[in-house]
Specification:
Layout (H helix, E strand, L loop, with lengths): L2 E2 L5 E3 L2 E3 L4 E10 L5 E10 L2 E10 L6 H12 L7 E7 L4 H6 L22 H12 L6 E8 L3 E9 L4 H10 L3 E4 L7 H7 L3 E9 L5 H17 L17 E3 L2 E5 L4 E5 L6 E2 L4 E6 L6 E5 L4 E7 L3 E2 L4 E6 L2 E3 L3
Parallel strand pairs: 6-7, 6-8, 8-11, 9-10, 10-12
Antiparallel strand pairs: 1-2, 2-3, 4-5, 5-7, 9-11, 9-18, 12-21, 13-20, 14-16, 14-19, 15-18, 16-17, 18-20
Pfam families: AstE_AspA_cat
Protein name: Succinylglutamate desuccinylase/aspartoacylase family protein
Keywords: Hydrolase, Metal-binding, Zinc
């Protein structure tokens, strides 16, 4: 069990870390068939002065590299060394998936559908259980980084529950290009944090098996703004200023391909489109068929399917239904 005692000494995974110190502790995940241990590095940095404990995670899905790159940059640039409090970084939660460039655990399960886990369940469930019991209790505030699945590219966004005033407060501070109202998925890490009374920001940006510099910058800048708000960002770092306030997406829906064929996207993710605007073309491989894809309504493009080939019925564009600008 993780905890902080009266002397501000953090005990996590059996190791005590006093104020002003740092440590890298390995969470023993499981063993390979060869009995070689697979361990998850937990990178902890503590200030002398007490303050919040911020937990930053990525790689719950092992193929979502943008999130891993965001947390890597936070560590590499020493942004994770706080002025007050404690920053805990876990760049790759699902090391198995990362090694295999796979979304899932070796047991075929999605770790982000296995929280809070069970002591004697499947491999993914057991790991979720250990994470929730041994690491999560000490955190005051959590940020978790994801990407779109497969070839679907997500615009940089924070997802929160509608009517979550506290979540909206911190989403405004993070100030990603978009803030999207999104229901919490059952047995997800986000749901478990919420049930334990911990504020969590879920970041989505880019797509799996891809590294995008612009997405990474949005993630790093957002973390710095949150740490600055808590008084944790050291003075040698400037608080990044956002160009515009985050755009609120209240509802959205997918547009699906009417035909199978080669998909040629003509519009950038994040762009505002008008109803009837030309967005893509679907063709056959033989030069006989060409179908123009037009926007079914006015809204923001918040996800684009970047697969070069689609089947009839495949989701190709995720379009907001009722966008509004945040005036704060």
């Amino acid at each position: 069990m993780a905890h902080i005692d009266k002397k501000n000494v953090l005990e996590i995974l059996g190791k005590k870390i006093p104020p002003g110190k740092g440590a890298v502790i390995n969470l023993n995940m499981a063993k390979l068939y060869t009995t070689t241990s697979v361990e998850v590095p937990v990178i902890i940095e503590r200030a002398v002065k007490p303050g919040p404990v911020v937990l930053i995670t990525a790689g719950i899905h092992g193929d979502e590299l943008n999130g891993i790159e965001i947390v890597r940059q936070i560590i590499s640039k020493k942004i994770n060394k706080p002025a007050i409090g404690t920053v805990i970084c876990i760049p790759v939660v699902n090391v198995f998936g990362f090694l295999n460039l796979s979304r899932e655990f070796p047991d075929g399960r999605d770790l982000n559908r296995m929280f809070p886990g069970t002591k004697n369940g499947s491999l993914a469930s057991r790991f979720a259980f250990q994470f929730v019991k041994k690491i999560l209790p000490v955190a005051d505030f959590c940020m978790d980084f994801h990407t779109g699945g497969a070839s679907r590219f997500n615009v940089a966004q924070i997802r929160i529950q509608k009517d979550d005033e506290k979540g909206m407060k911190y989403a405004n501070i993070f100030n990603a290009p978009f803030t999207m109202y999104s229901k919490t998925i059952g047995k997800s890490y986000r749901e478990t944090c919420s049930k334990l009374g911990k504020t969590v920001l879920l970041f989505e940006g880019g797509k799996s098996l891809d590294s995008n510099k612009e997405i990474a910058k949005h993630g790093v800048d957002g973390i710095m703004r949150v740490l600055h708000h808590f008084g944790m960002l050291k003075t040698r770092f400037d608080r990044p200023e956002a160009v515009v306030n985050s755009i609120i997406i209240e509802s959205s829906s997918w547009m699906r391909a009417k035909y199978s064929g080669l998909l040629h996207v003509k519009i950038a993710c994040g762009k505002h489109v008008e109803k009837g605007e030309y967005m893509a073309t679907i063709t056959d491989p033989y030069g006989k068929f060409r179908h123009k894809v037009l926007a079914p309504r006015t809204g923001y493009i918040i996800n684009v399917n970047e697969s070069p080939i689609v089947y009839q019925g495949d989701a190709i564009f995720h379009i907001s239904a009722s966008p509004s600008l945040d005036e704060e």
